[in-house]
Amino acid sequence: MRWTQAFIPTLKEDPADAEVVSHKLMVRAGMMRKIGAGIYTYLPLGWRTIRKVERIVREEMDRAGAQELLLPILSPSELWRESGRWNEYGKELMRVKDRHEREFALGPTHEEVITATVRGEVRSYRELPLCLYQIQTKFRDEVRPRFGVMRGREFTMKDAYSFHKDEKSLNDYYQVMHKAYSRIFTRCGLDFRAVLADPGIMGGKDTHEFMVLASSGESVVISCPDVECGYAATTDTAIGNPGAPSERIQPMEKLGEVHTPGQKTVEEVTAFLKVPPEKLIKTLVYHAGAKRVVVLIRGDRDVNEAKLQKALGAHEVLLADEATIKKITGAPLGFAGPVKLAASSGEVRIIADKLTIEGIRNGVTGANKADYHLTGVCEGRDFHVDEWHDLLLVREGDKCPNCHKTSLTAYRGIEVGQIFKLGKKYSDSMQATFSDEDGAAKPFVMGCYGIGVTRTVAAAIEQHNDEHGIIWPISIAPYHVEIVPMNVSDAGTMTVADDLYNTLWRNGIETIIDDRDERPGFKFKDADLIGIPLRVIVGPKGLAQGKVELKSRGAKETRLLGIEGAAEEIETMVKKTLDDLSVVR
Length: 585
Fold this sequence. Notes:
By secondary structure, this protein is α+β, with helices and mostly antiparallel strands. The chain folds into three domains: 3-239 and 410-462, BirA Bifunctional Protein, domain 2 (2-Layer Sandwich); 246-389, YbaK/aminoacyl-tRNA synthetase-associated domain (YbaK protein); 479-581, Anticodon-binding domain (Rossmann fold, 3-Layer(aba) Sandwich), CATH 3.40.50. The chain is 27% helix and 28% strand.
C-alpha cells in the first residue's frame, strides 16, 4: 500500500474522551473513529489488525476441531425466557421490538441460539462431541462505555460452543480449548496468564480467564510465584488463606460495653481503643434482591462481593443505606454488631467469612447502640452465625491457598478470553437432549469459549507501546514493513524504494511505503505512531554506500543492509519472527 493512496488519518493530539493508552493510540493512529458512546468505525489500518487476529483465531479453532458457522445477531425473547436469562441478564441486554411488538435481543452472547440450533439437529451420542464457533459483532448496553473498544457497546467476539455426552468428554475438550487459547495469544505476541475465574451470568462451574498482563488492566490477578505451584486466579475467585489471628487460642474475656463517642470507622475505633484492626468484627448490611443480610468479616479485611453474590445465589448485592442499617440494627452507621442481633427473626440472616470470623475470641464490634462498642466478643458464645462462606477479598501477601508456602503476588491484567464448563445449565432449561447408548434421552453437557477480538487488539496496544506510539507484535501488525524514502523527488531514491517495495510484496511481506512529499521528521513521527514492526529508510547517507537502513520499532539502533540483498534479509527476519511466535506453549 502506498501512503498517498491509503486512508490513514493520523492525529497529533489525544482525543479528549480517551482514558487509556489503547483508546488514545487507536484514534491517533487512524485505526478507528467514534460514532457514538461505545460505538466505533474501524478504519482500514485498524481493520487489517482485527482481521489478522481473526485469522489466527480461525486457524487455531479449526485445528482444535471446531467448525465455523454464523448465528443471527437478532434472537427472539422466547429463547432467552427458556434459559431464564431474559430477566436475569439485566439492563446490559439490548432489547428491541418489531412492528408487531414482539421482543428480541441483540446478542451479547449466543448460548440460547446455539442450544436451540443443536437441539433440533443432533439426535444421537454418535454425533458427539461437536464444537461450533462464530466470529461476530456483539452488543452490550454498558452503563458507562469507556476505554475505547475495551468496554464498548458493540464489539467483535469469537464464541464457540461444544456439546458432549458426559462430563469426561467435556473435561477433555476443555483442555483442548485451553491449549488452543494459549496458542492464539502466543501467536498474537502477547504476554498472558490463564487464571481461575468467576462464571458470573454465564453459569456453569469451572472457568478460566486469559489475561494479558498490563498495568492498565481493570482486573487484579492473584498468583503464586512458585512455578511448580502455578496457582493463579482473579480476585473474584481467589481462595482466602489469611491465617488465623493468635487471639483465637486465648482464654475468653468478659463481654464489656465501651463508650466510643463519634468513633465509626475501623481506623477510628482501633486508634481510640488501642487495638489492632484484626480484633474488630466488621458488621455490614447488604441488599440481596428483596432480602437483607448481615455480613461479618475481620476488621482488617474486605468482603469479596462476587463471592457473596454467588453464596447468596443473588443477581446483585448492594450495601444498604444508613436508614436500612438503623432499621435492622437499631444503631446508626458505624455501630452495628452481631451480638443480640435478631438474625433468626426471618428478616435478616447472619453470614460470616469462615476464614476470619469462625472461632474469633475477644473481638471488638459495634454494640447496636449509638456511640458504643463491645469488647471481649467471642463467636459461639456471644453471637451465632447462620451461614459460613469464604467471603474474603484476597490480596497480595496472603499465603497461597494451594501450596500454603509462598506469599501471593498481585498484578493487573486485561481479560481477552474466557472458557467455561457450562455443564447442563442450558440443555436442562431448554430441554436439549440426545439419545444415549441405552436409548434414553439425556441433556447435552456443554462448554463455551469466548475471545474478545477487538479487545485483544486494544490489549496488545496496552502491552506494547511507548511514548511515541504503538509497537505492534509482527503477527498482528497492519503491515510487516514500512519503507520511508527520505526524498520522494529524487528519482534514484524512489527507484530503490519502489523496487524493494514490489519485491517484498511479491515475497509475501506486507509493506507500506510512505511516498508522501513530507519532511522526514514528519514521516518518522507517523511511523512511530502507527507502530509498523520494521522500518526501512531509503536516504542519501545509506545510498551513498549502496545500502538502506533497517530499524525495528522501539529499537534505538539501525542496521545497514546492502540494496541487492535487503529484500531477502527482511523476508527472512519477518518469517522467522512469525514462526517463533507460532511455537506452542
